[in-house]
Design a protein that fits this description.
single chain; alpha/beta; TIM Barrel; eight-stranded parallel beta barrel; 46% helix; binds 2-phosphoglycolic acid
């Protein structure tokens, strides 16, 4: 068992209006809102951040966004800065999700700029990495994942406080939204490789402190076995985070089996 606090981060993607977001929080059991064993985070669309900041105030659940732009302000039509997210109540931001890499041409250089902007402003980044099915079948995909991690964090003077703030999510693209989870021991193996690589780059202490998540079709039925793997410190959850009951169950089970 690790000393790292388990994490359940919901990624709502492009779902829920502000009213639906408020209803979601209202439907959460009080035990979920008050629990402290798990770091529970809801990463919502920009348009829901305002109502969620209010709805989540006084609860243990933290608020996150799904993207940011690295400049502090300026003529960047359609973009949102780290400072704006902080002012909207966010503590976290997802960076480099495979959907952003695929549909919005985000590359490792941009991802790295965003990670730095998040950390400098005080936001905690959730850096996403992972391989496609083709890359897995071809073999040698582990090098791509380690490269994504290394480039994503490139140029950072990783302080102990950073190690506590950065979350890295391994999300095999073929497991996202498909109902096909990565085998638990395989997810554990990849996260172990990531941690070894982080130890080479930043030393064992920093690597041991960093929390590594698995993402890809995580559900209440899968989380107990996943979170018991030694390298899996939590999950980034899409579909199963959209229902209050299933989000609450994920948080409860992560606390029960992961702490
Ligand atoms: P999923 O999405 O849980 O619906 O597979 C995970 C993600 O994309 O973060």
């Amino acid at each position: 068992m690790s000393q790292r606090q388990p994490v359940i981060a919901g990624n709502w993607k492009m779902h829920k209006s502000p009213a639906e977001s408020r209803d979601f929080v209202a439907a959460l059991p009080e035990s979920c809102r008050r629990q402290e064993a798990v770091q529970a985070i809801l990463c919502a669309p920009f348009t829901s951040l305002g109502v969620l900041q209010e709805a989540l105030s006084g609860s243990q659940i933290q608020l996150g966004a799904q993207n940011l732009y690295h400049a502090p302000q300026g003529a960047f039509t359609g973009e949102v800065s780290a400072g704006m997210l902080l002012a909207s109540g966010c503590s976290h931001v997802i960076i480099g999700h495979s959907e952003r890499r695929e549909y919005f041409q985000e590359n490792d250089v941009l991802v790295n700029l965003k990670v730095k902007a998040a950390l400098e402003s005080g936001l905690n980044p959730i850096l996403c990495v992972g391989e496609s099915l083709g890359e897995r079948e071809q073999g040698g995909f582990e090098a791509k994942i380690l490269n994504q991690v290394e480039l994503g964090l490139s140029g950072l003077n990783l302080l102990p406080t950073h190690a506590e703030r950065i979350l890295i999510a391994y999300e095999p693209i073929w497991a996202i939204g498909t109902g096909k989870t990565c085998d638990d021991s395989e997810a554990n193996r990849i996260l172990g490789l990531i941690r070894q690589h982080l130890a080479r780059l930043y030393g064992q202490d920093r690597a041991s402190a960093l929390r590594l998540l698995y993402g890809g079709s995580v559900k209440p039925e899968t989380i107990a076995a996943q979170i018991q793997q030694p390298e899996i410190d939590g999950a980034l959850v899409g579909g199963a985070s959209l229902e209050p009951a299933s989000f609450a169950e994920l948080v409860q089970l992560a606390g029960q089996y992961g702490a």
